[in-house]
Model the fold of this input.
Amino acid sequence: MIIEKIFQSRIEKMDFNNISFGNQYSDHMFCSEYKNGEWINSIIKPFGNIMFSPVSPVFHYGQAVFEGMKAYKDKNEEVFLFRPKENFTRINRSAARLEMPSIPKDIFMNGLIKLIDIDRNWIPKNYGQSLYIRPFLIATNGVLSAKPSQDYMFIIISTPADSYYKHPLKIKIEEKYSRSSAGGIGFTKAAGNYASSFYPTRLANEEGFDQILWTDSSTHTMIEELGTMNVFFWLNNKLVTPKLNDNILSGITCKSILSLAKEEGIHVEERDLSVSEIINGLEKEKLKESFGCGTAAVINYFKMISYKGRNFLLPNISEKERISLRLKKRLLDIQHNLSKDPFGWRVQLKKYL
Ligand code: PLP
Ligand code: COI
Done:
């Protein structure tokens, strides 16, 4: 791999006391090209613009997939990645569905490890803060016909991250728009899934909601996920999350929460979950808590759920009693190397360079 280091770091311009997600990027990026069936030209170089033919399929047909993962520091400024193999597996699952080549493990892992090692100064030090890492794969061959590209580029960039949401969320159960449908690409992290959610999310934001609770596309009666997060409900003293299907992204945070909750002896259920069950739980006060979870957002609990114009406030329980905050702390403690790692999720990044 070629490594071209930046002449002068931009880190002095980074305000670590005021981190705004995705506004500043670390000094370097990793790129690897796929041409004639081979992965070539792996390079770490200064973060900067990239140039492709205007007829590249990524621009016309949305042949693009991505990942979201994080690097954390502990008190001694040792660096840890969280479950990186899960992201590697998932990007290749997404790539296969979009008829893209799979990324070899050594290219993904070496690129990731070396990039984060070079840019380790960009990882914020405080609890709950991290470096958000965005690997992505795009179709770059310039042929306008609607068919898969011949050439691709795999890129990794990163951005310092703090809490994505700074307040409890107001949620709208979606009755009209959908993010995915059976047999579609909802289970992938395909770029187009996000583009199609922007319009309904803006409408929900204009109505005063933070996020949309997606429901199934044919009946809008079954709960799927929340904006760019998976969703949990503390219902009848059980922690319930919708069972994965083709429409739902299998979240690494969700998987981790399920393991932590089971380990704590919490009764968890992964099953089909209807909107009426949630509304009934709200009306009868059997639904005590609900929260979304994802890499960028970590865990955020809801303040309000709205359905068909009716706003239901969730019980106003103390922070100490909240299952969401207890699980969030357990997760962050593992991520920041403050507690044991019983499941082997942390991957320590040694200093390579
Ligand atoms: N669902 C969607 C649609 C997402 O975009 C994300 C974010 O990545 C998640 C769920 C949560 O997945 P993860 O916990 O792996 O970040
Ligand atoms: C993540 O949590 O990693 C996401 O992908 C959310 C992102 C679209 C901001």
Observations:
- The domain at 169-316 is CATH 3.20.10.10 (D-amino Acid Aminotransferase; Chain A, domain 2).
- Residues 68, 194, 228, 294-297 surround 2-OXO-4-methylpentanoic acid (ligand 2) (CB under 6 Å).
- The CA atoms of residues 184 and 306 lie 27 Å apart.
